[in-house]
């Protein structure tokens, strides 16, 4: 039986968990969130590495076939440390914003991310590597991930409006540079009059995870019929039930239905 562990500061791992159940509906998942130390963007690199290693250690006890760092900020700052600890025994997959996919359209685009990721050398290197000939608006979204963790819809909508004002007129493509943001992609689309294309990372990350462990993805479907379950959920190392705040999001409802 395939078993995959996912870690993040909070609900940002939902999108990747949902994508994994789409592509590997019989896989079991173990989730490690870290609410005592959220938001990760406010932590020093050393502290963030320690927290990612702590969550990875919790997941490793379940002998997973792979560990996914389902968080952009943690991937930027802690991926190498977690890989050094666990590979090659356990493949470790990071999360990369879909900059390359967006650049492939040839259109200017915006990257919405946490302030820490927005100002990072890592994000700038992605832009330089894949979108050097395009105009890329770097949009910091303070408070949006936290509002999503709390399922505070008013604060979510306010943060989305603030992000659009930073983009300026005429830009019709957005890359979601924080895994939390995909949970409110429907609200982002609804808040913008006219066409808007949104690129997110969970499905590519899920496909890469399955490639690393030698599994062929199943067909993508909303019903996600399969035997896979969320075997366990942890909050800063404590065994917990899935938070009911998940019910605010379609992916969250599907995950709650999978809880063992």
TrEMBL record:
SUPFAM superfamilies, per database record: Aspartate/glutamate racemase
Keywords: Isomerase
EC number: 5.1.1.3
EC top class, as a word: isomerase
Domain of life: Bacteria
Pfam families tied to this protein: Asp_Glu_race (PF01177)
GO molecular function terms noted in the UniProt entry: glutamate racemase activity
InterPro entries reported for this sequence: Asp/Glu/hydantoin_racemase, Asp/Glu_race, Asp/Glu_racemase_AS_1, Asp/Glu_racemase_AS_2
GO biological process, one term: peptidoglycan biosynthetic process
Protein name as annotated: Glutamate racemase
Originating species: Brevibacterium linens
Upper taxonomic lineage: Bacteria, Bacillati, Actinomycetota, Actinomycetes, Micrococcales
């Amino acid at each position: 039986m395939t078993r995959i562990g996912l870690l993040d500061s909070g609900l940002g791992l939902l999108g990747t968990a949902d994508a994994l159940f789409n592509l590997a509906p019989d896989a079991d998942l173990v989730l490690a969130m870290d609410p005592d130390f959220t938001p990760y963007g406010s932590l020093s690199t050393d502290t963030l590495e320690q927290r990612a290693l702590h969550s990875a250690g919790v997941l490793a006890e379940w002998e997973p076939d792979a560990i996914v760092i389902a968080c952009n900020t943690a991937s930027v700052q802690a991926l190498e440390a977690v890989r050094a600890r666990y590979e090659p025994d356990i493949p470790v997959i990071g999360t990369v914003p879909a900059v390359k996919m967006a650049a492939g359209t040839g259109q200017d685009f915006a990257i919405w991310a946490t302030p820490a990721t927005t100002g990072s050398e890592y994000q700038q290197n992605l832009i330089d590597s894949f979108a050097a000939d395009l105009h890329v608006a770097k949009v910091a979204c303070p408070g949006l991930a936290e509002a999503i963790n709390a399922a505070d819809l008013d604060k979510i909508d306010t943060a989305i409006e603030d992000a659009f004002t930073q983009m300026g007129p005429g830009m019709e493509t957005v890359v979601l540079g924080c895994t939390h943001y995909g949970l409110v992609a429907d609200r982002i689309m609804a808040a913008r009059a006219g066409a808007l294309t949104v690129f997110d990372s969970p499905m590519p990350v899920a496909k890469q995870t399955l490639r690393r462990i030698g599994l062929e993805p199943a067909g993508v479907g909303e019903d996600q019929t399969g035997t896979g379950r969320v075997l366990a959920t942890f909050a800063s190392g404590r065994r917990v039930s899935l938070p009911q705040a998940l019910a605010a999001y379609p992916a969250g409802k599907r995950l709650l239905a999978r809880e063992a």
